[in-house]
């Protein structure tokens, strides 16, 4: 049953607007409500976002954040900002960029980078092999954990700088001492994350595999290690960052070449632009190495994406 509007009842109509406004107009000529909608604005925003892939938009945001940081650095250095942080002696980005271009034409600069990368490769490779092996042993055997864990917990809090005098006394060469210090820095995060990943493997999966007749080696290969891989990969990424930190500590004290030695010698010679160049190169190389670790381990974690799709 429908009710027709009488002479004293006002009928209403919704009138769309091209500007996104929605007006409700009464038959007696009185407008009772006007609501400003956001449909047109939202459609415009979605259309602009659709022009770029999602990953590109994220990278543009990250680049914009870095540009803002460089602008703040430039303004603070040019204006000699002195608000607790003093920028009187900090060179501005233009000066640093000019010096960096000059260093790119120097063979010694690449020699420093080559020595640092060689030390990282040796120390990190040893830390990966030994760290994962120790972590799996500790995660699978309580006896092994009781033997190894005390050493890990005692040695882990010791900073890299504190190892330098002992490393110089113990190791036959400076190269070996720097590699040893870098190895220790990368070892502990890898060990602890591996132990965590192995211990978090669901026991029901291990029992199911054992009930089907799987050997201990098969359980380790097909059940424990795949389940622990996310934690192991996280430890590898963290270990790479700590390895660079430890490497620089060793190069500053006992190195003759390396990007850490380059940075420290620039400080002793009061060459401030080179200090910032060394810091930025360290950050760039560390980020690049961590990215390579993550990308290299990505195929091993493909099962996670496949499980998510199913």
Automatic annotation (TrEMBL):
InterPro entries: MetI-like (IPR000515), MetI-like_sf (IPR035906). One of its GO terms (cellular component) is plasma membrane. Keywords: Cell membrane, Membrane, Transmembrane, Transmembrane helix, Transport. It is a multi-pass membrane protein. Its main location: membrane. The chain crosses the membrane at residues 59-76, 120-139, 151-171, 177-198, 219-245, 275-293. Residues 113-293 form the ABC transmembrane type-1 domain. The keyword Zinc does not apply. Gene3D superfamilies: MetI-like (1.10.3720.10). GO terms for biological process: alkanesulfonate transmembrane transport. It is found in: Cell membrane. The keyword Oxidoreductase does not apply. Belongs to the binding-protein-dependent transport system permease family. This is ABC transporter permease. It comes from Halomonas heilongjiangensis.
């Amino acid at each position: 049953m429908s009710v027709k509007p009488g002479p004293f009842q006002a009928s209403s109509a919704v009138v769309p607007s091209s500007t996104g406004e929605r007006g409700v107009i009464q038959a007696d000529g009185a407008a009772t409500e006007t609501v400003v909608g956001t449909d047109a604005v939202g459609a415009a925003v979605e259309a602009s976002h659709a022009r770029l892939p999602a990953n590109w938009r994220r990278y543009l945001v990250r680049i914009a954040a870095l540009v803002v940081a460089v602008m703040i650095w430039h303004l603070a250095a040019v204006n000699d900002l002195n608000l607790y942080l003093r920028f009187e002696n900090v060179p501005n980005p233009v000066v640093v960029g000019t010096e960096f271009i000059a260093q790119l034409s120097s063979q010694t600069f690449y020699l420093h980078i080559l020595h640092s990368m060689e030390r990282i490769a040796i120390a990190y490779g040893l830390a990966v092999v030994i760290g994962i092996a120790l972590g799996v042993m500790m995660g699978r055997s309580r006896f092994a954990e009781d033997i190894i864990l005390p050493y890990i917990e005692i040695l882990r809090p010791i900073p890299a700088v504190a190892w330098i005098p002992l490393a110089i006394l113990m190791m036959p060469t400076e190269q070996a001492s720097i590699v040893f210090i870098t190895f220790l820095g990368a070892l502990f995060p890898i060990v602890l994350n591996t132990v965590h990943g192995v211990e978090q493997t669901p026991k029901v999966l291990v029992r199911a595999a054992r009930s089907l007749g799987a050997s201990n080696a098969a359980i380790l290969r097909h059940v424990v290690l795949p389940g622990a891989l996310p934690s192991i990969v996280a430890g590898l990424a963290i270990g790479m960052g700590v390895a660079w930190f430890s490497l620089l500590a060793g190069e500053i004290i006992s190195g003759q070449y390396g990007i850490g030695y380059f940075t420290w010698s620039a400080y002793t010679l009061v060459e401030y632009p080179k200090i910032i160049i060394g810091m930025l190169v360290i950050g760039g190389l560390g980020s690049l190495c961590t990215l390579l670790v993550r990308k290299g381990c990505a195929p091993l974690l493909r099962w996670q994406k496949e499980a998510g799709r199913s």
